[in-house]
Sequence to fold (199 residues):
Amino acid sequence: MSEFLPPLEKLIEQFRKLPGVGRKSAIRMAFSILELSDEAASDFSAAVIEAKEQIHNCKICNNLSVDEVCPICSDSTRDHSLICVVEDAKAIMAFEKVRGFRGVYHVIGGVISPINGITPDKLSISELVSRVKLGVKEVIIATNPTVEGETTATYIAKILASTGVTVTRLAYGIPVGGDIEYADEVTLNRAIEGRRTFN
Ligand code: ZN
Fold:
């Protein structure tokens, strides 16, 4: 039998679905919800539903977007012949914060990880290849500098080799084992400036 009342246990289980939330944190969050006013609690649940209903993936780059095409892809002042490939939309936010990059993005939706059942076909790589064939000059691969991130970068570079596009990789600035999302402005800008051709 559960140590909490069934509705509370259910709430705890929902919070546990979030990354990095263990049972202890989930219990704390669930109790905080119970302390909210009825109005605040209903605002909270409405925000969850609204975000899920209104936010989709951009049909060009997979970035999060309210519209069919995200603001970056619809921006004609950006360089659409330069694509920065990232693992997820959070990385786009990190790049956009530093404003050093004026190209566009492509979110592949993760990294190749056979052990977790993530094979290349589960990622948005064929969509990237199709975009590149439309006249892209350079692809910067900005997957995180982890083992899986490197494997994914190498795989993408190999796939793109036949298209003749210049493929570069963020070179230095981001620590090995680090996460682009948490990189500071200077580090990320240096990484962009120091990118190199793949192989
Ligand atoms: Zn887009």
Notes: The radius of gyration is 20 Å. Residues 77-197 form a domain with the Dna Topoisomerase Vi A Subunit; Chain: A, domain 2 fold (CATH 3.40.1360.10). The chain has a mean pLDDT of 91. The chain is about 40% helix and 15% strand.
